[in-house]
Amino acid sequence: MKKCSLWLEKILPPPRGNFMIRADLDKGYRRFSRGLSLILTVLVLVPMSIIAIVSRYQQITIFIFCALVAVLVVFQLSEAITGHLREAGLKREQFLARAEQPNKLASIGRLAAGVAHEINNPLAIINQQAGLIQDIHEMSPDFPHKDMVEESLAGIQNSVQRCKIITHRLLGFAHQTKVKMEEVDINALLHEAVDFLAEEASYNRIAMEFILDEDIQRPWSDHGELLQIFLNIIGNAIDALAERGGDGRITLSSQQVAPEIVRICIADNGPGMTAEVQQHIFDPFFTTKETGRGTGLGLSIVYGLIRNLGGTVNVVSVKGKGTEFELDLPVHQEEE
Ligand SMILES: Nc1ncnc2c1ncn2[C@@H]1O[C@H](COP(=O)(O)OP(=O)(O)O)[C@@H](O)[C@H]1O
Ligand SMILES: [Mg+2]
């Protein structure tokens, strides 16, 4: 399968999600211990063989020789068995973490839907009452500070609209809004998402780079949900780069990696994440941002939405180097 052609690929093995760093440490350990046993074999067996051939005390030498061979065989075997056990343990850990994620999302989804429904009713009443006040206000003669009342009413109505968008998103997260499936032009959608955040990016002196394959297929997907996914990931990249004060770069790429799969990569050269943070980024309410700035819902929403669209999300992040999100989207949805 083709890989993302971005800079992270040059310094890292193929992305394996949150467990990459652990797996690489294990690989390094195994390589070291294999090397060590090879050196031991050469250092012990070669001189022993020579001694066995030339020595007069052949029986004792052959005995020591056999004993050493046995020790080395046991060492190699135990190393192989521990390696297998270690690998099995890692796989089990990965499986459990992945299996746990949908459960967390399902419970947070139910909570979100409950809250959204509860809030929708009083919101509708506030909106209705504000409309009524506005009608009376428009009909009433001039009085002192009439314009201030008008401003306040507009403020209330704007806030109600914002709350409605939030509750709609929450319901979307809980999959309780209607998904509108259509052919989606991924490249155009990436531009649309960047346009939304262009002002914020240029304020933080962040450059946006596109590496788009014009020949990719148009997946059968939901335009609104994909836009939300891209906005959440790009928004996080902007947050991560905001502190940098220049030289920040976000690279967006698209490619057809298989006949039925379109891959979208969103990479930044920000501060990256530790393995510890990476383990939790898809957990609802996990945030490293200060109170008031982060809700910790962005990436759990991304995870829920992309799964709902039949796709997958993977992250590769290196502390001090940057982060890359890789989204694989099926061109056609599997039949339910
Ligand atoms: N591009 C990125 N670079 C560094 N850290 C990131 C990036 N994207 C996400 N994160 C980490 O993942 C956490 C969770 O992100 P998210 O779910 O969107 O919640 P929030 O943005 O509200 O904190 C962030 O607080 C941050 O620590
Ligand atoms: Mg976020």
UniProtKB/TrEMBL annotation:
It catalyses: ATP + protein L-histidine = ADP + protein N-phospho-L-histidine. SUPFAM superfamilies: ATPase domain of HSP90 chaperone/DNA topoisomerase II/histidine kinase, Homodimeric domain of signal transducing histidine kinase. Residues 114-333 form the Histidine kinase domain. One of its GO terms (molecular function) is ATP binding. InterPro entries: HATPase_C_sf (IPR036890), HATPase_dom (IPR003594), His_kinase_dom (IPR005467), HisK_dim/P_dom (IPR003661), HisK_dim/P_sf (IPR036097), Sig_transdc_His_kin-like_C (IPR004358). The chain crosses the membrane at residues 35-54, 60-82. It holds the Pfam family HATPase_c. It comes from the Bacteria. Its EC number is 2.7.13.3. Keywords: ATP-binding, Kinase, Membrane, Nucleotide-binding, Phosphoprotein, Transferase, Transmembrane, Transmembrane helix, Two-component regulatory system. PANTHER family: C4-DICARBOXYLATE TRANSPORT SENSOR PROTEIN DCTB (PTHR43065:SF46), SENSOR HISTIDINE KINASE (PTHR43065). This is histidine kinase. It comes from Candidatus Electrothrix marina.
